[in-house]
Write a sequence for this structure.
């Protein structure tokens, strides 16, 4: 697209340009060769760290959602009188099978 005249400095709704999303240095160089403007601010070298941070936050949210699901099941078991059976079920899972409650 760049070879056919696409603007390498077009901005999206957030005001960011393609070069601000680039992780691969080869793509960055290609954009620069076609007239992309590098902004000062967050250097592209920090994007991998930012992406890792986003992934870590996504995993943390999944863990919190699974814990909330488990808490709701525990409350439900306690209010229906099924807590002793539920507790035995949880203890029988062990650590390697622990995430299975998130899929119920």
């Amino acid at each position: 697209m760049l070879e056919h005249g696409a603007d390498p400095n077009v901005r999206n709704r957030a005001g960011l340009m393609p070069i601000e999303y680039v992780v691969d240095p080869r793509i960055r160089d290609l954009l620069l060769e076609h007239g992309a403007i590098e902004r000062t601010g967050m250097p592209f070298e920090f994007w991998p760290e930012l992406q890792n941070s986003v992934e870590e936050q996504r995993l943390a949210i999944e863990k919190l959602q699974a814990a909330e699901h488990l808490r709701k099941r525990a409350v439900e078991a306690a209010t229906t009188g099924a807590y002793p059976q539920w507790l035995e079920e949880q203890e029988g899972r062990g650590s390697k099978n622990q995430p299975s409650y998130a899929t119920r």
User: Anything to note?
Assistant: The CA atoms of residues 26 and 32 lie 10 Å apart. The radius of gyration is 24 Å. Residues 47-80 form the longest helix (34 residues).
